[in-house]
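Sat 14:20. Reprocessing the chain from the morning session after the first attempt stalled halfway. Input below, unchanged.
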Amino acid sequence: MSEKTETVKWTYWLHLAIGMFFMFVFPRLTPFEPVTEVGMAVMGVFIGMVYLWSTMDSIWPSMLGLLLVGISGYVPELQGYAAVKDLFLNAFGTETVLVCMFGLILFAGVEYVGCTKYMARFFMSLKILEGRPYVFLFIFFLCSYVIAGLTNPLAAMLILWPIALEILENFGYKKGDKIFYTIICGVYLASTLGQPMLPFKGAQYMIVSTFEKISGLTVNFASFILFNWIMSIILLVCFLAIIRFLIRPDVEAFKKIKVADLTKEQLPKMNPQQIAFFLMIIIYIAAMLLPNLLPKSIPFIALLSQIGLLGINVLCIVVLMIIPYKGKPMMDFRGIAKKSFSWDVFFLVAAAVYVCNAMTAESTGIKPFLVQLLQPLLGGKPELVFVFFLLAFAIITTNFANNAGMAVVLMPVVMAFADQYPSVELTVICMSICMMVFVALLTPAASPYCGILHARKDLVEYKEIMQLFLPMVVIALLVYTLVGYQIAKILF
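Finished this time. Tokens:
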């Protein structure tokens, strides 16, 4: 039997050609003042990487981008292989990359040992959801938010979509019914809002650490988490308002929901390994937050400050690997790394942090160029108008490009206009942008998880996604500008 060959879509070659143009051709164009030749190379590589991250892959564009920056002349006083080696050592040897790597392993372990289904069971056991359709929806979405925040959005969708489908089927709902696509889309919305819940893991740590590097400021993790919780709850309530007053689905059957029906499948008692991971995550989060809350004169707090994020990550992993369970380490590092480690995030973080720092370097001339380019739009405006335009740019572009990548792109822009807006606190606006870019809802290019939602044609159609999420994006922009920005001013 002859093997069936799959043809590559023409869009693959189109996206590849566009990415290669920015990486190889753009740097050879005549520099325009005040951008230097090195700046042209760095800018072209960065634009090419962001485009390829959004349309093709995260790994090879990151590696190629770093290689091209290495031979562009950006690395001072070094040339050839010495420059390339120095660049890769610096890109992959930073605290940001190492913390991201160990954090990805640690939090992936929570899903790996099966803790997530117990999280879902906890939320589905709350008596308050019985007979209250919109309370049920809120708790169901909140469950997705928490699971995504402690693991990743994919875990939340894989766990809660089957539960939703079973409930919908039992009540006689089918694809195309308003409540059907509302729940499917709501699970995704809550999961993407939960993704940046913890600032010391995943792509959000890349954004936070990039901001800290180029601004010299420190982000308070406790404030970050509280900001995410407050804004996510507000947005979920807004989403429920859209459902209740705009979509108006038939929810009569949900008044019959009973906790006993939702929890009829018996879960085995949590084993010691699962309990250990739950406890370790609690200890880990506490260890990250306590140095921000308590004086460093306390010996234990002083120790946490001394070992820092990297040390806390390593210590948690080492402890879990030392403790035995059934003759093996409590934490199967190799198994978790093989099954659940996100290489895409790892390479994206390494490349984005390094090249973003290059974008703000004086030798490139990119920072003054951004000021000249965006001055008519962003310069000389009232504070809230400036904030609105930045957040609007973030929420629009993140639906057509990698969300974390777009947040990193905006960091130099904010820094470039900092002198014109002394009343705008850098931490406040940049953390607002960090949250905003995760409201990625409208296109498959917004994020890998959004691509999964759009690919599930068996569950939801594009017009249904737009019916729910287009007003949600507009509301999110207004809420972050008028409410979230003010809350961030208080918290940060």
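DSSP finds 22 helices and two strands in the chain.
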